[in-house]
Protein: Cupin type-1 domain-containing protein
Amino acid sequence: MGAISYGTNSEKFNSKGYVADPEDKTQKYVVCAHFMKTFCLCLFMVVITFSLGLAVVTLSPKLQAIKERGHMEKAAERVLNISNPTPTEYSYLNRMQSSKRFVLQGGVVQWARYRANPAHYDTKEERAFGESIHSNGARMTASTLEIKPNGCRVPHWHFNANEHGYLAKGTMWIGILDSAPFAVTSYNVTVGQVIFLPRATLHWMKCVGRDTCLFILFFTTSDELVTRDVDDVFYATPQDIAARSLKPKGGINFIKSFKKPKENQAVNLPPNLNELVHKASYTRSKINQVSKYFFNLKASRQYKYPGGIIQWARYTKKKTGLPWVERIFAKSLNEHEDTVTMATMRIFRRGMRQPHYHFNAHTMGYVLRGCGRVGVDNNATEFQIRSGDVFFFPRGIQHYIKNVGKGDLFMVIAFSTHDELQTLDMNIYFQSTADFILAQLFLKKQEEFHKIPTFKQDQDINLP
Ligand SMILES: *[C@@H]1O[C@H](CO)[C@@H](O)[C@H](O)[C@H]1NC(C)=O
Ligand SMILES: *[C@@H]1O[C@H](CO)[C@@H](O)[C@H](O)[C@H]1NC(C)=O
Ligand SMILES: *[C@@H]1O[C@H](CO)[C@@H](O)[C@H](O)[C@H]1NC(C)=O
Structure:
């Protein structure tokens, strides 16, 4: 492109150059050859300047346009990757299982999240998901935290999010230091239980069983999560200040004896742990204290449907008939800002969570077992989900989940409300809308709508 432009330029230059020749012939009629020479030179310069100017004026917008177009195409390709556009499903789906594994000494962390700097995404699919949860204001970020036996997620706090989690494997001993009166609440969490760690409470987790632990976590932000680990804060504090604060025996020399390791300690497992730790006591706090942060979801009431089972860790307006530990947990969720309602959903083989939407919550879920087909009403987007996937449904968007595997489809789901979740299923809104309105809407005889039956049992998860 550039070479061609320059070619045109020099052609123009030459043709104007020839114009100077006839002028030369007038020379003999002129007394002062010197004057003429100067005049010619000046004229020549003027012509050159003019033609160059003309070339610049006529060509530069084109060059500019060409340059801009190239630039925009590249940018567009970076954003959309025209050769391989991102399917709309990635607004609702993150294959977290195959995302980047942040490997630390004591475990592995993976994310389905928003990044403020787009260059920090590893794939365009992750970016589509991250931008979707951010632009929808999902107030949720998903993560898995896998910890080896004896590994520890070291004491830390989150500036901008509550942490909710479902323990899928192992036994995890958790300590929480909430605001005054600064009593540590500690508890052994076992498989099928959920945790709620309010924003800014200091907490730690240690995998205490023989098996590797796996947490499915939901942080209640769709900005970037901001976290501070205690060791980082300590090493960032001037030694004399730390000595003055802690007043240890040995003074500042004791503080100076702390050596910051090269490796990130976020999830640590020192090889010489047995030398370091002689006596560990994993106690349990009083149950009414524990119940503010922990709930045995697996043992809670099962809501049974023809095609599956749902269990809840949530706030409800209903005050009677709930076990008192559940009432404490529900109250704690409701009293804090930006908490989530959690649930497990088991869909039996051939079962389907029928089309529905939520009035007051976004939905984010993690597939623990099985495989399903998900549909979202936006542009009739349909996609498969399988173990390790994270899905997201913005508030108000109708969606369904169908089990297409051989066994149960089992999911952990978080709904972004600290209030009672409000949901409307497709069969309910058909049955609740007057048949003459449906007739007018669908251009079908009124009687036809009597073919849609009502059932005694709730059909939230149904069978064919
Ligand atoms: C676009 O996608 C193709 C195929 O996945 C890949 O080879 C290419 O590098 C991508 N281009 C950009 C600019 O990301
Ligand atoms: C917690 O689990 C650990 C490891 O299984 C066990 O040693 C400890 O006694 C448990 N603590 C309580 C209070 O159940
Ligand atoms: C639906 O598809 C249309 C046309 O392809 C597009 O402009 C629109 O943004 C899509 N809507 C969503 C929510 O993806």
Remarks:
- The CA atoms of residues 243 and 252 lie 5 Å apart.
